Amino acid sequence: MDRRFLLALVLTAVVVIVTPWLFGTSASRRSGSAAAPVERADSARVARSDTAASTAPPSVAPTPAPIPPASRDSTIANAPAADTITVSTPLADYRFASVGAAPVSVTLKAYRALNGSNEPVNLSSASGPLLAYRLFLEGDTVDLSRLPFTFERQRTPSNADVLTFRAVAAGAQVLIRYAFVPDSYLVRVSGEVRREGAPANGFIAVALPTNLQSAEADSLDDQQHLAYAVKPQRENARGIPFGKLDPGERRIEPGPITWAAAKNKYFIVGLLTPSGDAPFAEVTVTGGPRTGRRATRASAIVVEPVREGAFAFELYTGPQEWRRLLALGRDFENSNPYGGFLQGVVQPFATIVMRILLWMRATLNLSYGWVLVIFGVAVRLLLWPLNQKAMRTSLKMSRLQPELSEIQKRYKADPQRMQAEIMRVYREHGMSPFSSLSGCLPMLLPMPILFALFFVFQNTIEFRGVPFLWLADISLKDPYYIVPILMGVSMYVLSMIGMRNSPPNPQAKMMAYVLPVMMTVFFLNLASGLNLYYAVQNLTAIPQQWMIANERGKSMSTASQRT
Q1: How many other β-carbons are positioned within 10 Å of the β-carbon of residue 413?
Q2: pLDDT the model gives residue 23
Q3: Which residues contact 154 (CB under 8 A, 6 or more apart)?
Q4: What local confidence, expressed as pLDDT, does residue 53 receive?
Q5: Which neighbouring-strand residues pair with 124?
Q6: What are phi and psi of 195, to 5 degrees?
């Protein structure tokens, strides 16, 4: 194995190992102790709502003056028992509470829980409803989450359900309406606020869920993905993992904001500004208490101006299905921001890989396990000419190395003459000083795809629960560790073939043993689908490596005959 191939292997290890250190992965943080079940805390929700009134967003215009101090809090001290209203659509069952006029939970009919219950996924929070409202009017603060509402249901001519809540508090008439979009997880929310018969201005603060209950087989992994995400109007979307927030730590995301969301690994509760409407004024995120090392709770408040007595937003409560999120527009498909500070590079590349896999699945009508196998083979075949050229360049460099070493020894006292002679040798053989680098780079070309798949497997619901051969779920680790071991063995075989007919190199031989072991240990707890792709890559590269090793042997034999 020559130095260039050794460098390629080392860089491969660095990329894969440094990735979770830079951007985080659940597999690298499983050692934390499990948190105790989250307790219900109404006081935390009230404190969360008070946060929204602490600052008025000055960047939104036209808006009222900054939120004034509340002259009196119209919170209902003893709210009556809430009625539960259920609205069924083809995709989901929505449950609302009459107290607070907010969704309590959403049952997703097309997705089954993988935690053993085999029930439909129930999107809910362990500490309260999915949303909670607080209204800020001049001189008054009204906690709508404790206010009893009357309600009525209607059906539009297009066969869509509309649920309307009404209440009176602090002299204000409040209306909140939910219009359910057929064959969608989207609900259009609108509201009206009137005082003394006239439209009232102010702000409404919408509290996102403090957590989302897990429906996954690996609930600890699901908890590691608990996060909020926001999309500033003029910037890329960014995620705020619960684990990155210290208890009580507050972060304010200034407006204008296009959308904000709470999510776990595969499901999401998002608030989106209607297309063409004014954006949200700000989002305030606060770290929640911890009972262990694992962060399972936080709070987020989305502030929207009430203009001329009206406010509106869209509510998405469903799967993080890429095509469905893409159809919503507003960059909502990037609600899982990948790549950290390299997001501008990683996110587009991950999107390309995701598009290709979805297209292959739809075109070939095969399971995602076979799609990954075919994708791995196709990538290697497409790169075959480049790899072939790179390996042959490496052979030429190996043949030139004795002559270059002789020139360096002969002219070590005359650097200029040495440089001129080296360039002459390069020209005679059609090479350049950059040939060694160009011979190494093609070996790293598959790495960006592996790098993208590393992120894609973290949240892509299309892989959730997909079986393949003995694997019950390619999004989870192989319970028998067969695929990561196969990946490590194939990597070792590839390295050993690469050293055939090469000059003895003790360091290269040591790396041929150490690197596969190191990579196998790292990949043990990663998604089995990711291991499958990498193993296929290695197996597909073996024939080409064998051919190059034979060419190297013939070249060495010819050179020895000439001498």
Answers
A1: 7
A2: 44
A3: 161, 162, 164
A4: 36
A5: 105
A6: -130, 125
First and final CA of the chain: distance in angstroms? 23
SS3 content of the chain, % helix, strand, coil (to 5): 40, 25, 30
Q: Return d(Cα 226, Cα 158) in angstroms, integer.
A: 37
Domains, the chain, in order of start with CATH, read 3-24+363-397+434-562 (no CATH), 32-337 (2.70.98.90)
- Rounded Cα–Cα distance for residues 239 and 183 (Å): 28
Look at residue 275 and give its three-state secondary structure. Answer: coil
Residue with structure tokens 């075989």?
493
Contact 245, 341 (CB under 8 A): no
Q: CA neighbours within 13 Å on the CB side: how many for 545?
A: 22
* Spatial contact of 512 and 499, defined as CB atoms under 8 Å apart: yes
Q: Residue 313 has what pLDDT?
A: 96
pLDDT in tens, 260-284: 999 999 999 999 998 766 799 999 9
Q: Kindly tell me if the per-residue pLDDT of 431 is higher than 80.
A: no
465-501 per-position pLDDT tens digit: 999 999 999 999 999 999 999 999 998 888 888 777 6
3-state secondary structure of 13: helix
Q: Is the pLDDT of residue 38 over 80?
A: no
Q: What is the 3-state secondary structure (H, E, C) of 129-140?
A: CCCEEEEEECCE
Q: In what order do the strands lie in the sheet with 102-112?
A: 84-88, 92-97, 102-112, 120-124
Residue 55: HSE in the Cβ half-sphere, 13 Å Cα cutoff: 16
Confidence of residue 440 (pLDDT cuts 50, 70, 90): low
| Alpha helix positions (H), 192-340 | 219-224, 322-328
Query: Residue 435, Cα to own-chain centre: how many angstroms?
Result: 38
Whether the predicted pLDDT of 438 surpasses 60: no
Contacts of 71 (CB under 8 A, 6+ apart): 139, 140
pLDDT at 50 over 70: no
> Token match 């935390």: residue?
44
Which pair of tokens denotes residue 124? 């809910």
Residues sharing a CB contact under 8 Å with residue 346, sequence separation 6 or more, in sequence order = 338, 339, 340, 451, 452, 455
The DSSP output letter for 67 is: P
**345-371 pLDDT, tens digit each:** 777 888 888 889 999 999 999 999 999
Give me the amino acid identity at 71: S
Q: Residue 537 and residue 326: Cα distance in Å, rounded?
A: 30
> What CA–CA distances, in Å, run from 234 to 72, 279, 316, 331?
37, 11, 22, 11
Q: For tokens 């969608």, what's the residue? A: 184
